[in-house]
Amino acid sequence: MSKELIVSYEHSKVRIIILEEGRIQELHEEEIGNNFTVGDIIMGKVKKLAPSLNACFVNIGFEKDAFLHYLDLGPQIKSSLKYCKGVSSGKINSPKLTSFSFEEDINKDGVIQDVLAPNQDILVQITKEPISTKGPRLSSEISLAGRYLVLIPFASKTSVSRNVSTAEEKDRLKQIGEQIRPNGFGLIIRTVAEGKSAQELQLELVNLLNKWNNVCFRNIKKSKSPAKILGELDKASSILRDNLNEDFISIVCDNEELAGEMKEYLNTIAPEKSKLVKYYDSHIPIFEYYNIDKQIKQLFGKHVNIYQSKGAYLIIEHTEALHVIDVNSGNVTANQKSQEDAALHINKLAAAEIARQLRLRDIGGIIVIDFIDLTSSQHKKDLYEYLKKVMKDDKAKHKILPPSKFGLVQITRQRVRPQKQLNTTEENPNINGKVESPIVLVDKIQQQILNAIVYNKGKLYLHTHPFVAAYLTKGIKSIRNEWFLNYKRWIRVIPRDSFKYLEFQIQNEDKEVIFKFSN
Length: 519
Known about the structure:
Layout: E1 3-9, E2 13-20, E3 23-31, E4 41-50, E5 55-59, E6 66-69, H1 77-89, E7 121-128, E8 137-139, E9 144-145, E10 149-153, E11 158-160, H2 167-180, E12 185-189, H3 198-222, E13 227-230, H4 235-243, E14 248-253, H5 256-269, E15 277-279, H6 286-289, H7 292-299, E16 303-305, E17 313-318, E18 322-328, H8 339-361, E19 365-370, H9 377-390, E20 398-400, E21 408-413, H10 438-455, E22 460-464, H11 466-473, H12 479-487, E23 491-495, E24 504-508, E25 513-517
Parallel strand pairs: 1-14, 11-12, 14-15, 18-19, 22-23
Antiparallel strand pairs: 1-2, 2-3, 4-5, 4-7, 4-13, 5-6, 7-8, 9-10, 10-12, 16-17, 17-18, 19-21, 20-21, 22-24, 24-25
Cofactor: Mg(2+)
GO molecular function: hydrolase activity; metal ion binding; RNA binding; RNA nuclease activity
Keywords: Hydrolase, Magnesium, Metal-binding, RNA-binding
């Protein structure tokens, strides 16, 4: 199945889309200048203990103190605290852990006050971004992720991803991991390492060790808490690291600098894939060209049509931590042997769409699904197994419970970031029950085009709502053709699915906005 990565650089954020066969499968957003991202490693300071929660609050420089539970300390927390204290004081002058004297692992049933104290420096990693009124969530079990390996300082074992296909391959990878693993570090071998040689894994391990030696050690030594020790890759590069495979046929970005950075990163991790990166330079916005804006409006509403179902749809309702999804049937019984077969068919299509919606919206917490009722126990089992299959590629931790006696399926899904909520509605353009006539809007556009023609000698581009664009361009005697005859300038009209009805922009050939209007 062919995949495309589409990256749009906007003024305040980068938006990243993964397409499969032209359909949106994942949507990611990264705020430019965001200093607190999942994966960031930070030297924090314990602010206060919360024995009743068996946790503590840590100052990492965010407006709200971050939360660190005892179970997220990691068994080797005492060794980590000892190492960081020694590096900061100058007693430890080497990033290597070969000769470091490790402390005993902590008891998993212990209490926070036996390990940490207020005002103590601690090396932590963000595992959840701030959600609602809560600050970030932390772990002090540090990991440095590569494409094939994850390096874990202060650990001492090698693990292999459970998604590796065969037991023989797991054994081979584990054997390689044990051979190359340096003393004082643990390794996790990722699924994409399947089939890779020992030399390829060794090369990435060297890069991860250099990152620890040259970045983490140096910053631990010179930084005063709270301070960032190592930032996670930018979102686009981290998606490439975690998702890149043979299915990807193109990587397109509308920012030349960011496209260059992604190409440079691919030259490091997969040189043969760097040719997939293309810089998109057009007056038609990249999300408009790939039909993404239209899909977003269709996918993020309360009602979502089920792909290839001929009319079935989902209704998705949200609360703070509970999400309810109702499956509604359409006219799809014609090709089915019975009503029961039709219900199973719709439910399977709905299960695939639900799995996509959970990834797209980054829905976490408890999800309750009301599928169409099935009477056959075998059909219920088939649906449950199919739902687990389509959820298999979801990287967020999740658990799916079998259908209850009421026919409801419950899913718990990890919350790592705030849920995406995109507004798919538009304000009513009516003012006091009235709306400007089309000719008034056209006059307004025409006046601004006249002004633009006076001061701009190059090409002009009018971005407007698709309905207005059609009104301006339809027919031989279209309004746009009249402009050409009157002003001897051809105005390129670009429909924008993301625009409101009365919104329009005029841009020059350098993509600079000369005039914009939004009611």
